[in-house]
Structures are given as structure tokens and as C-alpha cells.
Amino acid sequence: MARTLLKAPKTQRSSQKKPIPKELIYEMVAGNPIYYRDYKQVLLKKKSAEEIMGSSFLQSQLVALLVGMLFSKLDLGRYVLTTNEGGFIYAPKSWRVLDIAVFEKSRVKKELFSKKYVKTAPKIVIEVDTKAELKASGDILSYVTEKTDDLLDAGVEKVIWILTESENVLIAEPGKQWIMAKWSDTIPVLEEVTLNLEQLVQTLA
């Protein structure tokens, strides 16, 4: 797929240009920051940093349900499951945050107790929407495409995007045609583990 290098959003010029605080950076691509959505509202003191970094209630519930499902079905002697937007360094001056990631324990063993971002590529990544400012990349589709390409190129075997607005699921694997599924479809995640968002969401009612 064609790639577009992300660039930092331009800020208004002034005689005393203030740097954007590092805590407002969501991800980094080749030294170019991707900021949190609505980061300018923080600069204008209309919102706090905590307000723009938080997840929606539905997003939080979906992540919790997915993590619970994976913990109950995965062989935890073989796999390591992470959440809470763990950082993944995939190239120099480049890192992405991951909503949910499944690692092979044998490959990530040396980093199990690391207090830094992981450098070993996870086997599976599951993303639920994004908190990124999308103007730099154009739109949600461009951002999803760029991030997915980065993860697959880094060695991730499968990336699953859960999009709450359209209620679609994007499944991407290296060397294969990407698939756009519906929430009602049953999606293979790993070995015998499958995911059906419609059934999962019904447990919230």
C-alpha cells in the first residue's frame, strides 16, 4: 500500500513560539510527533491534558471485554497479553501505542519486567478507534493504513481495528488482502480464538 509520511501539524507563527509539551504527543513516526486529538484545546487552556487522553465509555468497555475474553482463552504459559496503550518502538525515533497486544512469551522474555517501551514486535495487535489528531495524516483511513503498515512491516502478524463509529472491523495480515468485516462477523484472532463483536457487545446490555 502507498505510504504517506506523517508530518507534525503546523502551529501559528509568533515572535515567541512556545514548544508543544511532550505529554501531548500520542505517537512518534520518524521523529515527527502525532499529537492527541484536541491537543490545541489544551494549548488554549480550554481542556486539560487528562480530558483529551481519556477513552470514551464504549471504547473502555470494549477493551475491557476483549482483554477478559483473551485472558480466558489464551495459553498464558505461551503468550503475554498487554493493554493500557503500551508503547512499541518499531524503528529509530518511532513508536506506536497499542490498545491490546499479544506477544509470544519466548520472544519477549528478556523484556518482561522492562520499565521502557517494548522493542519486540507483538504477534497480534487489536486497536479500538484512536485518540490521535487526524489532521496530520488526512483522515481516519489514512491514519489506520499508515499505522497498520508500520506494525506489519515491524513483524506484527495480524492487526485488527475495531471501529465503533461505523461498526466495522478491519483485519490486516502481511502479504494478504486486507478484509473489512462487520461486527456481526466471526473473526479469527489466534489459533482457536475467535471474536464476534456483536455477541460481545450484547453482554453489556
Short characterization:
With 205 residues, the protein is α+β, with helices and mostly antiparallel strands. It has helices spanning 39-43, 49-53, 57-73, 105-108, 140-153, 197-202; strands spanning 25-29, 32-35, 79-82, 86-91, 94-98, 100-104, 124-128, 158-163, 168-172, 179-182, 187-190, 193-195.
Description:
The protein has 205 residues and is of the alpha+beta class. It folds into two domains: 31 residues, no CATH class; 148 residues, tt1808, chain A (Alpha-Beta Complex). The protein is 25% helix and 27% strand. The chain is built from six helices and twelve strands. Strands 3-6-7-8-9-10 form a six-stranded mixed sheet, sandwiched between helices. Strand 1 and strand 2 form a beta hairpin. The longest helix is centred in the N-terminal third of the chain and has 17 residues. The chain is globular and about 55 Å long. The relative contact order is 0.14. The N terminus is likely disordered.
CATH architecture descriptor name of the largest domain: Alpha-Beta Complex
Instruction: List the secondary-structure elements in sequence, H or E.
Output: EEHHHEEEEHEHEEEEEH
Radius of gyration: 18 Å
Look at the structure and give the mean pLDDT: 91
The main β sheet shows up as: 6 strands, mixed
**Low-confidence blocks of residues:** 1-16
Q: Termini, distance in Å?
A: 39 Å
Secondary structure: number of strands: 12
Tell me roughly what share of residues is in helical segments.
10-25%
Name given to the CATH homologous superfamily of the largest domain: tt1808, chain A
